[in-house]
């Protein structure tokens, strides 16, 4: 029977949206605390300050890479390496998160490009984070490296 795993993060925010600031802590892994600000979210990213969209991109690229790796292995073409980038677009006015562009490059010995593309797309559709973000347009560019 599947076991439910709960991962926890927390955020503390001080002040109003525009001039306030906060921090997000990765509670489960205890890997660290990251600063947050509206400026990093709505204008140019400030070095050392993250945004919810960057964190979503990290989660999506990690989940996609893991899903794709498993699907390639189940296809008897396990990857040597997978590199995935998730670019999350955010409209600070209206619209919020407007899209996610996944780009993946993988080294997969013995696979034909048509099979690679099919599995890459299937991984995009079945990755748990993609499913959670189903209300957002997700694009994929996949290439063998």
UniProtKB/TrEMBL annotation:
Gene3D superfamilies: 3.30.300.20. GO terms for molecular function: peroxidase activity. Coiled coil: none annotated. GO terms for biological process: response to oxidative stress. InterPro entries: KH_dom-like_a/b, OsmC/Ohr_fam, OsmC/Ohrsf, OsmC_Ohr_Peroxiredoxin, Peroxiredoxin_OsmC. This is Peroxiredoxin. Pfam families: OsmC (PF02566).
């Amino acid at each position: 029977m599947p076991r439910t795993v709960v991962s926890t993060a927390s955020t503390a925010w001080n002040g109003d949206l525009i001039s306030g600031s906060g921090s997000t802590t990765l509670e489960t892994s205890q890997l660290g605390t990251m600063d947050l600000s509206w400026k990093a979210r709505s204008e140019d990213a400030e070095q050392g300050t993250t945004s919810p969209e960057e964190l979503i991109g990290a989660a999506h690229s990690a989940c996609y890479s893991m899903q794709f790796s498993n699907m390639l292995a189940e296809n008897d073409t396990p990857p040597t390496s997978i590199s995935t980038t998730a670019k999350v677009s955010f409209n600070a006015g209206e619209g919020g998160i407007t899209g996610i562009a996944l780009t993946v490059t993988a080294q997969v010995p013995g696979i034909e490009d048509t099979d690679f593309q099919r599995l890459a797309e299937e991984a995009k559709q079945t990755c748990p984070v993609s499913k959670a973000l189903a209300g957002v347009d997700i694009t994929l560019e996949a290439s063998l490296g």
